[in-house]
Amino acid sequence: MSTVSAAADAALALVPAAVRRSASGRPAWLHFAVAFDFIQPAPDQSTFIVMYRMLYGTSYEGIHVDSKWLGATRRRVAVVSASLLAALATATSTATADSTRCSPVSVAVPLTEGGPVDQRIAGTLCRPRGEARTIQILVPGGTYDRSYWMRGNGKGPTFADTMVRAGYAVLAIDRLGAGRSSWPSGARLRPDSHQESFRQVALAARQGKLDGRRYRNVVAVGNSIGSTIIRSVQIRHPDTLDGIILTGESSTPNEAAFEQFAQATYPAGQDPRFTARRLDDAYYTTRPGARAEWFYHLPGAQRAVVARDEATKESDTFLETFPAISDNRLIRIPVLIMIGQHDRLLCGEGATDCTSSAALQAQQKRWYPNAPLDAVVIPATGHVLTLHRSAPASSSLARDWVKRHVG
Q: Picking from 91-100, 133-142, 327-336, 364-373, which range would have the lowest pLDDT averaged per residue?
């Protein structure tokens, strides 16, 4: 029995009996691991990902979490978390070296250009076995953390896996206000806080400040607001990136849908998941049950994936000022746009034309007159591309695009 299994089995004895149920044939102690993921503040999700992959060689979707026992479990989990983490510290280092070659990173960043460097962006850096000249920085959308790129759709490789297997280094980050990155007060946030913090991460990749390697090419991949941040940085600082992949974002969003979506959010401080963070009113999250309605095309997603998404949602903050869409003309590097066919926040009459890839390409090219542009509609998919059944196809498309346009 592995060290991790032994520690987890011992921990399971302290968890209520209601937890001890298997899901999809997986060992019952994994319910403890999921409960561990709910402790506030949330532990580093990369630890849990590596643990599960080490033992099972796959992602950790499909595990059922029963909220009725969660409160009682949290107290018991606290008693054994130290011993479990000690086991993970040893086992994770071995697993990372032998398989995924992933490690946590932290980059010191300011809240505005030229400001004091007193915040941090946390992330997980995964490297291929050989030397990588290109790194992809993965920026999640609103109310998501780095695990968006590392969880997957429940079957097949994740987006991060796909890129690492293709020979690329990958850095999945938590944006400010989410995950393990800093949670600055709303009073300190500035109109360029997300943009400048991301730019500093990209600079760190070029300057060898992530892992001692100076990456020649930096590609940024975003979803939703993460895409908007990437695009804005490239407009204002055109030497930052060598290619950008924008998912869940277009130059013609569905404004009426966004107005309706605002009713599906509320202050993060009102959500029990974030009580321990003591966030101010600058932070928001989605209301219970809203993610399935707004982020998914349910026929194209697994219910277990949607449930996991709801259970692991993040806080977020949005006080940013972005360039006008017309400023996209300043972007001159290759751009790939991927949009789900059923993205409620983008598609619709008078908004983004999601009827076909050709229609999307023709519509979006107007806003990117000086950039090599490819635009693709992903069938049977909603707003969060990596969490739908189509994810392996869209990830492969992105991988092949990077090979062609960046190298």
A: 91-100
Tens digit of each residue's pLDDT (9 = 90 or more) over 75-132: 443 333 333 333 333 333 333 333 458 999 999 999 999 999 999 999 999 999 989 9
Higher pLDDT, 152 or 182: 182
Rounded Cα distance between 290 and 257, Å, is 13
Helix (H, G, I), strand (E, B) or coil at 16: coil
Contacts of 375 by beta carbon, 8 Å cutoff, 6+ apart: 336, 337, 338, 339, 357, 360, 361, 363, 364, 365
Residue type, 329: R
Give yes or no for a contact between 100 and 53, defined as CB atoms under 8 angstroms apart: yes
CA separation for the pair 40, 44 (Å, rounded): 11
Q: pLDDT by residue (tens digit) across 144-168?
A: 999 999 988 778 899 999 999 999 9
C-alpha torsion 35→39→44→45, nearest 10:
30
Mean pLDDT of 170-192: 97
Instruction: Judge whether 294 and 261 are in contact, CB under 8 Å.
Output: yes
**Residue 274 · residue 126 · CB < 8 Å:** no
pTM assigned to the model: 0.77
Burial class of 222 by CB neighbour count within 10 A (0 to 12, 13 to 18, 19+): buried
Q: Are 402 and 168 in contact (CB under 8 A)?
A: yes
Strand order in the sheet with 169-173: 102-109, 119-126, 169-173, 134-139, 217-223, 243-247, 335-340, 373-378
E strands, 241-334, are 243-247, 265-267, 283-286, 316-317
- HSE (side-chain half, CA atoms, 13 Å) at 192: 17
